[in-house]
Amino acid sequence: MRTQVAIIGAGPAGLTLGRLLECAGIDAVILERRSAGHVLSRIRAGVLEQGSADLLERIGVGGRMRREGIPHDGVELSFDGDMLRIDFHGLIGRKVMIYGQTEVTRDLMDARNASGARTIYEAEDVSLHDVRGGAPRVRFVKDGGLHEITCDFIAGCDGFHGITRASVPDKAIRTFERVYPFGWLGVLVDKPPVADELIYAHHERGFALCSMRSHTRSRYYVQVDAGETVDAWPDERFWDELRRRLNPEIAERLQTGPSIEKSIAPLRSFVAEPLRFGRLFLAGDAAHIVPPTGAKGLNMALRDVGILAEALVEHYEAKSDAGIDAYSQRVLAHTWKTERFSWWMTSLLHTFPETGRFGRRIQRAEFDYLASSRSAQESLAENYTGLPDA
Ligand code: APR
Ligand code: PHB
After folding, report:
1. 275 with 290, same domain?
2. Second label for 197, Cα 20 to 30 Å away, from 151, 311, 320, 352?
């Protein structure tokens, strides 16, 4: 089999890249280890920056998002029950769009099925060959048979645990990592959200987040210690803990019900450098991870593949490799700023084993500073709604 770009992974990064290339008339094949159903069963964040929503519109998959997504003008922060609204629209004239990653993935898959573009699901044992040479190859096993794709480029969109980054020799890559000593326990419930906007709450018992998927489906999280298991958190315990971490009037309004999904996600900051190795490019979670505070993971993935698609189009159409040569540096410049913001929001809102009394006062001072300073709020607003490309 031959294609121009072999894309490994059919998460949001791989599917969006596939669509961008399709729109530009560049042939690509996507290889995905799991089934389409499994990819769609993963519940992830649901906040799109304006730039991400615009990108989805541009590649013709924005219709349902436009109809069913909920534009938000701001978010609420809560510190020991004291509320502070950050009015993105009033401060800097920007908004975000509430629309689940699962829905983005579904829309991209539907568009790909409709156009007949090739996706090979349940592709096992994917391996990369001759990445540094002129004609890289990708091998995989499907239905027991070994197959090979020859291509011009490989896009590593296979997430944090994928094989593309792992295929790079240790001496050619540097990684930077911080693992947080806690996770987020998330619950999905078919009840209307407790508030019109998201609420990010700091409490001495730990962080909590009130989010939503629609006007009738809510997503809530509480910070739990690393190593906690879902079994230890029956619904009642979850709701009690969430209420305790919120402002009492909001806790009173919370509508609870049986959870339709419950899972624990660890928190990690991670960056690989560089992001290009010969004809292999890393994008999305394969390249970097942020803790979910700030909802940047999906947005970073979309930005990466936007930059990568531009570079590949330039290669094929303008016969220039300037974009390809600049890919790593361009993505990393943005990545590190977003890493900083996600780390900062995580640091402000969570309780850490080492925080101590001094640290808590500093967190409170940070919140009070935000409450009193328009420039601090503008800074939060521009980061949350998405920084412009470097
Ligand atoms: N071979 C083929 N596919 C693989 C392999 C492999 N060896 N390893 C992983 N994959 C697939 C996974 O099954 C998954 O469907 O790659 C895909 C990667 O998708 P994501 O993990 O969703 O990563 P990405 O597309 O970069 O999207 C980033 O997703 O993880 C969230 O918070 C993150 O919102 C962010 C977004
Ligand atoms: C979510 O809705 O799942 C969500 C929203 C905002 C975040 C993280 C997760 O920062």
Report:
1. yes
2. 352
Pairing of strands 288-289, 218-225: unpaired
Active site residue 292: yes
From atom 29 of ligand 1, which residue's Cα is the shortest distance away? Answer: 298
C-alpha of residue 81 to centroid of ligand 1, in Å: 36
Q: What is the C-alpha separation between 27 and 151, in angstroms, rounded?
A: 10
If DSSP states are collapsed to H, E and C, what string results for 89-143?
A: HHHHCCCEEECCHHHHHHHHHHHHHHHCCEEECCCEEEEEECCCCCCCEEEEEEC
Domain assignment present for residue 85? The answer is no
**Domain count along the chain:** 2
Q: What is the pTM of this model?
A: 0.97
Residue 376 belongs to domain with CATH number? 3.30.9.10
Query: At 76, which helix (H) or strand (E)?
Result: strand 74-79
Question: Which residue's alpha carbon is at the smallest distance from atom 3 of ligand 2?
Answer: 45
Do 41 and 14 lie in one domain? The reply is yes
* Burial label, 86 (beta-carbon count in 10 A; 0-12, 13-18, 19+): buried
Rounded Cα distance between 188 and 168, Å, is 38
Judgement on whether residues 112 and 137 belong to the same structural domain of the protein:
yes
Residue % of the chain over a pLDDT of 70: 100
Q: How far is the CA of 171 from the centre of ligand 1 (A)?
A: 24
Q: Which of 219, 267, 383 to mutate to test the pocket of ligand 2 (most atoms within 8 A of CB)?
A: 219
Spacing, Cα 345 to ligand 1 middle (Å) = 24
Name the closest-CA residue to atom 6, ligand 2: 295
Nearest 5°: phi and psi at 280?
Answer: -105, 135
Ligand 2 in contact with 219 (CB < 6 A)?
A: yes
